[in-house]
């Protein structure tokens, strides 16, 4: 019971402190990308290396989990983007968002961050090129299924978890503001 208690305390304090700012930055960039980048713009690049590099540029700042990237990937496939470029999005997006990169850089250093980013992006592009090669060589039909909704967690649990996360982040920022004001008032 003590281990469970200390794990929950760590998640509600130290982990929130480590990810809050990066999560907010990631959500900001994700909103910018989703608002200002049209899928028609990406579809014209086809299955070239440029479309994959564009997917990397879009997916790196985007804060998106593997589950959330699947419907976006289906939409990208339906809009004409190559399966390889969509795979790059699905591999690079969840693994390299601004929040993750911030935490990796802070905890492991810049050198590890560059190695991590290079490994993930390089692997994603190699497998994206391989996917496009296999699709064109063997004539695979890649038709996304847009019907049906599948959830891992019940909707109420997802919403409740988001509310708890938002409250913990608000508490962290509130305490940070109070600390700054207290330090300023003590300094005067």
From TrEMBL:
Source superkingdom: Bacteria
Subcellular location: Cell membrane
Keyword entries, A-Z: Cell membrane, Membrane, Transmembrane, Transmembrane helix
Membrane topology: Multi-pass membrane protein
Keyword check for Phosphoprotein: no
A cellular-component GO term for this protein: plasma membrane
Keyword set includes Coiled coil: no
InterPro entries membership: DUF318, UPF0718
Main location: membrane
Transmembrane segments: 20-37, 49-66, 72-92, 113-135, 155-174
Family to which this protein belongs: Belongs to the UPF0718 family.
Protein name as it appears in the record: Permease
């Amino acid at each position: 019971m003590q281990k469970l208690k200390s794990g929950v305390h760590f998640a509600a304090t130290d982990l929130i402190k480590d990810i809050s700012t990066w999560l907010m930055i990631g959500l900001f960039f994700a909103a910018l990308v989703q608002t200002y980048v049209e899928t028609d713009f990406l579809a014209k690049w086809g299955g070239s290396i440029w479309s994959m590099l564009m997917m990397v540029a879009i997916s790196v700042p985007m804060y998106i989990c593997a589950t959330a990237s699947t419907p976006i990937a289906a939409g990208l496939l339906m809009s004409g983007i190559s399966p390889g470029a969509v795979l790059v999005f699905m591999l690079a997006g969840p693994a390299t968002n601004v929040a993750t990169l911030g935490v990796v850089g802070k905890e492991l250093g810049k050198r590890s961050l560059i190695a991590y980013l290079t490994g993930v992006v390089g692997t994603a592009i190699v497998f994206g090129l391989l996917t496009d090669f296999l699709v064109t060589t063997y004539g695979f039909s890649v038709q996304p299924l847009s019907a049906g909704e599948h959830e891992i967690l019940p909707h109420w649990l997802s919403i409740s978890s988001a509310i708890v996360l938002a409250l913990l982040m608000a508490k962290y920022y509130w305490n940070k503001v109070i600390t700054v004001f207290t330090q300023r008032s003590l300094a005067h």
